[in-house]
Fold this sequence. Notes:
A: 272 residues; alpha/beta; 9 helices; B: 275 residues; mainly alpha
Amino acid sequence: MSLSFRKVSLEYANGVRAVHRIDCEIRAGERVAIIGPSGAGKTSLLRMLATALRPSSGTISVLDTNPWRLDRGRLRRLRSRIGMVHQAPPLPPRQRVVTAVLAGRLGQWPAWKSLASLLYPLDILGAERMLERMEIADKLFQRCDQLSGGQLQRVGVARVLYQRPDLILTDEPVSAVDPALSDRVIGELNREAIERGVTLVASLHAVDLALHRFPRIIGLRAGEIQFDLPPVRVSDGMLADLYASESRTVPTQDNQPLETLPAGVRRRNMFP
Amino acid sequence: MNPALRLRDPAAAPRLLLTVCVIVLLWPGFSLTEFDPASLFEERSRATIVKFVGTFFPLETSREFLGLVLKSTFETLAIATAGMAFAILIGWPLALVVTRSLSISRIGPGPGRVAGHSVRVPARFALMFFRSIPEVVWALLFVRAVGLGPAAGVLAIGVTYGGMLGKVYSEILESNDTRPVTALLETGGGRIAAFCYGMWPVALPELVSYSVYRWECAVRASVIMGFVGAGGLGQQMELSMRMLNGGEVSTILLTFLLLVVMADAVSALLRKVTS
């Protein structure tokens, strides 16, 4: 198993219980979407996979290793193989987009190369190619504080694509991106995972994106897994139960009602 | 029940308690130091003050004295700038060691916490030691070692200000937004690279403005260095004071004012450029 949770619980210092005895296994190369209402524990789950948080109890295994048994050097190398797209991109406002994207390989480059790249970016072409996939290649030399929220999120995704990690984690990567473009961004993430055979775990607020793009859906509510199924087996009733505490309708990227497919399943193209 | 009574501000009581505590703590301070601002405006005090201020005028503006002041100003600037350079050399690396935002073991928390502590605590203590001894005392110490002259002043300013810069730099690095640098440490980046990509662009304006302010303080400190023979405007002022020449002293003080104005302008310019 590439990723696994065994009876993992997470409790924050203020007593808030984020995740409660989760059991889950994800094979290498799988593409999984995690959906659920706000406060369900999606971010906590992803941060535990990114080795940014330690579970309060239970064992977690990331890329076939228990990260908290490793020494500093191995843990650092493990972390350089994990790419996390944060919901609010952690990009310094005064930094230029090209530097922000090239920072993705800081875990892989030697120190002299990282510092030399600050004087003159060493791989402008590589950064530009990733930005082109996100359709913001024209922002290459602009400062991050000159971009809109959706553009910043796409720069964050471009950074992780540039890193070429063995595990891609994304925490609501398109929450600020408009519906048409968000489809393309999720499509690019999926294409990256399929082409390179790496695992992709995405937490999404928009249920339609999850159901249309991912072959495995995990529903999370109040820190517990409600269901773990392929999208054709996820019923409207399950979705309504999942979001019952938040709203009466299921959230979608374009705020239109979730389309209900007829009895025969219509498959959408993966790469439009 | 009246809705206004039901929804009371929970922070009101602690805030009131804190204010009362602050006043209670300040009161003995005022009485112990015999603080009495009213005495400044008494008849006798006013006359004394006016007479004292009168000795500062007219300003001494003879060409040879102004030439002397100019030469001393350059000496003072040199002492202050060299001292600050030395201070940054001492304080900057220690600040990077001490700051918690560059700690990798904090993420998780992960392995290496004990090793991190055993390096961070001595570094912190070194910074405290450097700045707890006043620069005059350091200067007297260094005068024994390197003799009278500007070198003792430079070393004294370097050591004391190194301790101050190290502490404030580390606190600036911790108080700014640490999310970019933490995200880079989480992708396996090294500390130096993560700092340059994630923390430097965020903290630069504040670091620059504090450093320029400290340089301004170093100019003042070099005056005191002059009293122990380090040269510059301080030595000039000591000579003028010993000869009770108020006019020369006020010329030197005016030079100080001009230096501070210049430092202020440089700081504003650098803030605009780096923001």
